[in-house]
Design goal:
Layout (H helix, E strand, L loop, with lengths): L10 H5 L16 E8 L7 H10 L4 E5 L1 H6 L1 H9 L3 E4 L12 H15 L5 E2 L8 H9 L3 E2 L4 E2 L9 H11 L5 E5 L5 H17 L2 E3 L3
Parallel strand pairs: 1-2, 1-7, 1-8, 2-3, 4-5, 6-7
Length: 211
């Protein structure tokens, strides 16, 4: 089984300091803030359920959407917008940097903009992979590259749902950016994990905020 890093090593944000690894720890109301982020949607089988959980806990989140899914499910995407969540670009085709040419990767980011009509300030690279050339290109276009502090591994069936949750709860802190997935692959573990995570955060006085 490959090594799974639930918590980003402290040296990574130091090396890639122009990327966003954590958010503002304390909000304008003085409450501790954390940042739930959801990748790969919108998906009708799971995204509306996620939205209901967030609404029940008065929580806001950031959704890094795939352009193709936005076009396939516009009514679900509109629910995200109407409920006041932040939205980011996750490429149009969910391409992995390093498996395609830089031109193809950049074209997928631009295709998201052109086909959805959205010009967003936030970008998260699929699989967390991003080479220097593409990072520089994104910054020239005005994007903020968003990474994370904690990974739930909600898509990975080799890690139990209990271990996934415990790793996050053990290391969460004000400002943590947490990665989850509103995807079919992550659905089974997600529906167990998210309500428990939201309950934990509420009980400890955390506010879930938009990036």
């Amino acid at each position: 089984m490959p090594l799974r890093l639930h918590v980003i090593p402290s040296w990574l944000p130091w090396i890639f300091s122009q990327r966003l690894w954590t958010g503002t720890p304390i909000g304008p109301t003085g409450r501790k803030q954390v940042y739930l982020t959801f990748d790969d949607g919108p998906i009708p089988e799971i995204t509306p359920w996620v939205l209901r959980q967030l609404k029940a806990h008065d929580a806001k989140a950031t959704f890094f959407c795939i352009g193709e899914n936005v076009l396939r499910h516009p009514e679900v995407f509109e629910q995200i917008r109407q409920q006041g969540h932040q939205i980011g670009n996750h490429t149009h085709h969910h391409l992995c940097d390093g498996r395609v040419t830089d031109e193809s990767y950049q074209n997928s980011i631009t295709a998201f903009e052109e086909k959805t009509g959205l010009n967003l300030p936030l970008f998260r690279p699929p699989y967390g992979r991003l080479n220097r050339q593409n990072a520089q290109w994104l910054r020239r276009k005005g994007y903020k590259i968003v990474m994370w502090h904690l990974l739930c591994y909600d898509w990975d069936n080799n890690i139990s749902k209990e271990k996934s949750l415990k790793k996050v709860l053990d290391h969460i802190k004000p400002g943590s950016i947490i990665v989850l997935h509103d995807s079919l692959k992550a659905q089974k573990k997600m529906t167990w994990l998210l309500p428990r995570l939201l309950t934990h955060l509420s009980a400890r006085g955390y506010q879930c905020a938009r990036l």
